[in-house]
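Write out structure tokens for Thiol-disulfide isomerase/thioredoxin.
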Amino acid sequence: MSTERHTPRRARVRAPEPTGRAWLNTGGEQLRLADLRGKIVLLDFWAFCCINCLHVLDELRPLEREFAEELVTIGVHSPKFEHEADADALAAAVERYEVDHPVLDDPELATWRDYAVKAWPTLVLVDPEGYVVHEAAGEGHAEALRRIVTDLVAEHDARGTLHRGSGPRVVEEKPDTTLRYPSKVLGLEGGTMLVADSARHSLVEFAADGETPLRRIGNGSRGAADGDPETASFREPGGMTLLPEHVAARVGYDVVVADTVNHLLRGVRLADGAVTTVAGTGRQWRDEEHTGPALSTALTSPWDVAWWERAGGVVIAMAGNHTLGLFDPVEGAVSRFGGTTVEGLRDGALDEAFFAQTSGLAVAGGAPESEGGDRLWLVDAETSALRWVRPVSDGFEVRTAVGKGLFDFGHADGTASEALLQHPLGVAVLPDGTVAVCDTYNGAIRRYDPESDAVSTLATEVAEPSGAITSEGELVVVAGAAHRLERPVPPGVTARLVEGASQRVARPATEIGPGEVELVVVFDPPPGQKLDERYGPSTRLEVSSSPEGMLVSGSGSGTGLSRRLVLGDGFEHGVLHVVAQAASCDDDSGVEHPACRLTRQDWGVPVRVTPDGADRLPLVMGGLDAQ
């Protein structure tokens, strides 16, 4: 299959006016593209549940600073989960992730439909005259955007159609609270608790009451500096785990911290609060080697960590690429523990399983033969799933207790096969062997009983619970949106059943016809670059489906960016999982080592098979669809 560059369409397409419920970061003013003529406008279609969207927010910050006079970024929030459609929840997310550009609240996905968007995140560039000039799905497009914006600035400056000046941004001040959007909690010896204060980029140790702060580790500013508590810095730290005493004595630190946005693991010595970097390079993993020396192997958004003796180290919930990693602090090594990087829900052998933004880990001890014993419990946020990993004779396997797929969620109790969660971020094993789930987007604490295989509800009206521990037999929960620790389950309370309802993403399904469908991934290398074919094919495409039998042919991996898919009979709905990547390098024939980069995107495309459906499915990774 040819990997030559696609030819973009020549017709100039006027950008539709964004429409939605309300605007944030504009002082209440409604923005219109017509009022932004003369500016380059970048529309960022995002959802605050989506790890790739959060990556893009950080990728865009340098671009926004560089072109502060010429570029206006508008975030178009297009929710996947029901909770994300809540106006207050969106406002909280805008503050939590320090989004300081205008954001359009589009709960009905009206603007998403107008721009024919098919993936979170998607970026659309509009030129100073109001025409769409570029589209890109996924992350890793910052350099391509910088080149295109540079060209647009030069072109429209020469034509007199560029108007410089500050953009329409009005950012509200944050309230002064001890914690701000905390994410995880760790119990320490003596009964104190260490809390990851995510939006304040630090750790706070509390007394046993969970209310009295004892010390803060980290200076509160975004950064990756090592050192004492006053000079060290983090970027949105997440999960933490204690090392066994004999391991801590050898390595010189007691706690491993998932420093999420820095793509690092940090070590904290509790005696004096000293912080050191113990794994990661500070760069986000981009399909390179995932096994090697800890400080020279890239990580991607480590969200939680847990010491698991059976695995021989610290298991890492690598939310950024839907895998589990393993960190050996004594050997100073990182390796891939499970997953393939494909986002989805597939059980079986750990190295072949699909995960979906794993966000919480908890280890259950006990004898291997006991029900629930010697397991690693985890929650996959994007499939709203509770799962476990357990050792088997030839390695490890993963099984799902609760969860149906990428686009099925809700709040329903009962048998595990029928129960529903909504974007859970935390999990804890209770003293009786049952499992507490921080059902984040339902604002609830749920309970799964492995013996009865049933789900019930322990508490509701908890503001975005994201982590939990047990302290003296009582459940202590991080209520992230309430900026505090809570004890929402009084001792002796029996879990109750909640009759909930199934929910599905509001995102419209793509209608395709039965039989044969041509899948085309559109990719144009950035200006000044060409596809890198020095060492073989420069592109790769991997396709699978849920249900697995939906594709008669066309699944699997190949090097071309288009694929003939053949659908099986009897399937009306499903999800196509598409992972595409392309390598490109600077088009400088005289340069021995040109600058190169890898663009990668994965789509989970909900499809509906209809007689009048399309026989062509275009997905734009970068550029414009030529047809």
